[in-house]
Amino acid sequence: MQSGEKPAAAAEVRVLGSWASPFVMRVMVALRLKGVEYELLQETMGKKSELLLASNPVHKKIPVLLHRGKPISESLVIVQYVDEVWPPPASILPRDDPYAAAIHRFWGQYIDDMVSTLASMQFPPRIRILRGTVPGDKDEASDEMTTALLYLEEAFVECSKGKQYFGDDSIGYLDIALGSHLGWIRAVERIAGVELLGGAKVPNLAAWADRFCGHPAVVDVMPDVDILVEFTAKLI
């Protein structure tokens, strides 16, 4: 910077995160659905920037949304914030239907409780079991994930009402919550040699997954499976 120049102003909307995090992807998809421009500030794995520590001093983890300098943490909290701050036409949670919104929040929490432990960056121990490289019940680990996806297959039928997505004809809260894990689910399938999201077991989810990954708000931020597999090799 030359003498007398002012530092560049920070973007109004910034995201602290990592390209490999499904939770960060949730935030980016929500912002892209709303047409909001944002700046992604990449965090280095194994390190925590001063900005992250200052923005999320309680959990000290990504993602964090900085909106006009004010931090919001926890991915699904951020998704709801984005939905409320930036109005329709794109609505993420069902509007004018508190019961439907509550159902979507319930399944969103279920995804975080049951699916993310196997299909996110917290999963190396389970992948080792699925691969048979450490003691553990490979079939049991696979069955846990399959059971969770079967429940979500039923939830898709209930929530979508025959439409394209959990959120009706457009991507909504549950699409974002589960869809953010699809890259990692595919990586787990390839690494462990198991089928988790096969059309025979969960046909509606399998078809939905293809639609979700091809959506304009998703296609540019969904991590490449080959890169995730290579990335995972360093963790396990």
Automatic annotation (TrEMBL):
The keyword Transferase is annotated on this UniProt entry: yes
GO molecular function term, any single one: glutathione transferase activity
Domain GST C-terminal as annotated: residue spans: 97-236
Major enzyme class: transferase
Gene Ontology terms: biological process: glutathione metabolic process; toxin catabolic process
GO cellular-component term (any): cytoplasm
Record-linked Pfam families: GST_C (PF00043), GST_N (PF02798)
Protein's recorded name: glutathione transferase
Organism: Oryza rufipogon
